[in-house]
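F.,

This is the one I mentioned.
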């Protein structure tokens, strides 16, 4: 009994001591400066931290280690950091599965028991049979850093091309599995990145780059991608080059084959090759400058999803015997809502429209007549999966408060039934999502979603997490994220802003946020914050902003333009050096949105005006800032974050912390091991909540 009391007393003392600990003002490592100057159109631009672009040097490694020590010390001193990690871990410990995919006569789906580092792929002979493990990436490494980044099945389901990624890199190795035996062939394809595999009867088409220089695999420029044909059971060295466009070296070319394997389509404009004929030429069907996606061939008709003279997308049809653009016919015209996805399932067209940033789903016959609308559970996002001969298919639905839930849909009856719903240890009914519209700087109406706990009081003092992206024609749709729940449970408002630069309202919305219009994106985000303050949701001391990749650029631009408007800024794997972004990996392919510093003096001046790295001003009080990146991010190279962090630490007035978190054996964020992901989420949200003055009640 005495020992028990003593132990209890020690625990109480320990908790009390821990609760008194607060992060101290960070002491940043010294970062040397070098005499590096670039000249753009007679303008000299210093780049004193250029040496940090060398991602493999000992000096950079030493700097990373020193910065991580400072960051870890600060984060670990946050009183509720461990409690938050435990809560996020508990919430994440639930079974979840992916959409069942039918290939050949088998069904495949992914599953995670809760805290497995990587999802496991299962196989079923039928939906009523017990599933068995098909691929388990957790066996490929001890720490979960080797992942299955893609899988593509042959038309008959006999083979699967598996893309294997290591340490979060975009680089993939392709290995071929015999699905009957579960054994891998000797085939091994290297230096593949984003493009899908397109199968025919004897092999597949894929896109790859030349091997990068040794020790520069994660930073050197990737250009001149080539589409190759690989015949099964032959070495990569014998693969046949199919297509390359030397006039546009920054383009990432990809191919797809028709369901019957008769035709190959390539995405440069739209090229088509008849695979039934020996040495058939590639035929240009349509002009470049538009997007064309063949979604199926039925009765010698090619159904094409396109924005050709339709900024909000439409469906057109081409005859296989006269397939050039001049002969195409419109099947389903452009509408007020944006056509975002299109598939042929069960001999019908399944079309998903995006209206005010949330999905609507419809079924059409192949003559273009609307048959029915699929009424969705709420405002949210939907993904369909099925084959053209199926009578039933599946769809996945998600929202801000609904985790990925799978339904089975009867096409003829227009009825769906619940197939799988995950069980999570929180009550979604405690929260509400509303959509509101506000006016941006130039009087354009911008939508945003607000999710919060019921009973919210608009007293001007609520903690707010403002998230945005605004680029590359990508729609920021409603989605579920476990890591947001503790923030919401403790009184926070999560807000997702649908900025210009995305595709929420079609091509015009996208173009309004690119190149010389990019400032519109930042103005939209800033205007969102101003609206929330005006309407008494919050105040500047309670606003955190966050974004990743292009969204990291958003955060960097907004915190440098309006530092007084935000209390916290979190930039994750952000594009921060707008003068040099195109000089690394696939950066040049982003020039369609950004332009480059070499295009013209006007473009250079414009990029310089908002480039986060180049707009930090000495003695300014910037928000409490956390910058995250990773040593294997070969999409937005970590040099962006390194140089921005070093500059911000030097120029900041010192009131608020400026920290950088550099993950090890991780990349841009995809397929990250669960253990790494949970730690990162806890670090980020602890930083946000602590600097917003929040306490963790739950």
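My design for it:
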């Amino acid at each position: 009994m005495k020992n028990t009391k003593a132990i209890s007393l020690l625990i109480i003392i320990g908790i009390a001591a821990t609760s008194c600990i607060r992060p101290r003002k960070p002491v940043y490592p010294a970062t040397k400066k070098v005499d590096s100057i670039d000249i753009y159109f007679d303008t000299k631009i210093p780049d004193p931290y250029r040496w940090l672009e060398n991602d493999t040097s000992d000096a950079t490694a030493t700097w990373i280690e020193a910065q991580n020590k400072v960051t870890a010390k600060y984060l670990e001193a946050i009183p509720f950091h461990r409690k938050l990690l435990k809560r996020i871990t508990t919430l994440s410990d639930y079974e979840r599965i992916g959409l069942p995919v039918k290939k050949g006569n088998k069904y495949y789906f992914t599953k995670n028991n809760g805290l497995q580092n990587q999802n496991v792929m299962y196989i079923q002979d039928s939906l009523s049979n017990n599933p068995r493990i098909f691929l388990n990436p957790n066996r490929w490494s001890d720490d979960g850093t080797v992942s299955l980044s893609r899988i593509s099945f042959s038309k008959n389901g006999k083979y699967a091309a598996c893309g294997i990624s290591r340490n979060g890199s975009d680089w993939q190795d392709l290995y071929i599995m015999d699905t009957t035996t579960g054994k891998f062939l000797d085939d091994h394809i290297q230096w593949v990145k984003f493009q899908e595999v397109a199968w025919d009867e004897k092999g597949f088409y894929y896109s790859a780059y030349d091997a990068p220089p040794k020790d520069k695999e994660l930073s050197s420029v990737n250009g001149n991608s080539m589409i190759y044909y690989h015949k099964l059971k032959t070495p990569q060295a014998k693969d046949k080059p199919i297509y390359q466009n030397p006039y546009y070296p920054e383009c990432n070319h990809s191919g797809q084959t028709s369901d019957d394997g008769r035709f190959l389509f390539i995405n440069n404009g739209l090229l088509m090759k008849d695979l039934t004929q020996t040495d058939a030429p590639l035929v240009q069907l349509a002009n470049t400058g538009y997007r064309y996606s063949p979604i199926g061939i039925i009765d010698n008709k090619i159904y094409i999803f396109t924005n050709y003279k339709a900024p909000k997308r439409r469906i057109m049809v081409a005859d296989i015997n006269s397939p050039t653009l001049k002969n195409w016919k419109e099947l389903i015209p452009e509408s007020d809502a944006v056509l975002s996805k299109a598939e042929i399932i069960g001999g019908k067209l399944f079309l998903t429209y995006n209206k005010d940033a949330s999905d609507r789903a419809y079924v059409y016959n192949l003559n273009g007549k609307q048959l029915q609308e699929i009424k969705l559970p709420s405002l949210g996002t939907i993904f369909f999966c099925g084959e053209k001969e199926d009578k039933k298919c599946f769809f996945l639905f998600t929202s801000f408060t609904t985790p990925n839930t799978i339904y089975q849909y009867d096409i003829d009856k227009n009825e769906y039934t619940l197939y799988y719903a995950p069980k999570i240890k929180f009550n979604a009914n405690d929260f509400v999502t509303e959509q509101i519209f506000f006016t941006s700087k130039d009087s354009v109406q911008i939508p945003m979603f607000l999710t919060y706990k019921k009973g919210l009081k608009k007293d001007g003092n609520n903690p707010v997490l403002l998230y945005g992206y605004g680029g590359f024609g990508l729609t920021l749709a409603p989605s579920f994220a476990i890591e947001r729940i503790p923030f919401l449970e403790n009184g926070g408002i999560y807000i997702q802003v649908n900025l210009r630069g995305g595709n929420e309202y079609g091509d015009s919305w996208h173009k309004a946020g690119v190149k010389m219009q990019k400032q519109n994106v930042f103005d939209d985000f800033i205007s969102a914050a101003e609206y929330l303050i005006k309407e008494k949701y919050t105040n500047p001391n309670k606003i955190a902003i966050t974004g990743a990749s292009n969204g990291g650029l958003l955060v960097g631009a907004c915190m440098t333009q309006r530092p007084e408007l935000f209390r916290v800024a979190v930039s994750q794997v952000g594009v921060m050096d707008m003068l040099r972004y195109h000089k690394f990996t696939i950066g040049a392919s982003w020039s369609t949105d950004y332009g480059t510093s070499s295009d013209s003096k006007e473009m250079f001046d414009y990029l310089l005006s908002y480039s986060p790295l180049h707009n930090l001003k000495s003695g300014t009080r910037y928000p409490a800032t956390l910058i995250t990146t990773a040593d294997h991010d070969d999409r937005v190279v970590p040099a962006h974050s390194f140089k921005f962090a070093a500059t911000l630490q030097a120029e900041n007035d010192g009131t608020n912390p400026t920290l950088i978190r550099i993950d090890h054996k991780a990349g841009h964020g995809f397929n990250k091991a669960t253990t790494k992901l949970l730690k990162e989420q806890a670090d980020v949200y602890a930083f946000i909540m602590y600097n917003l003055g929040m306490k963790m009640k739950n």
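The longest strand covers residues 183-192.

Talk soon.
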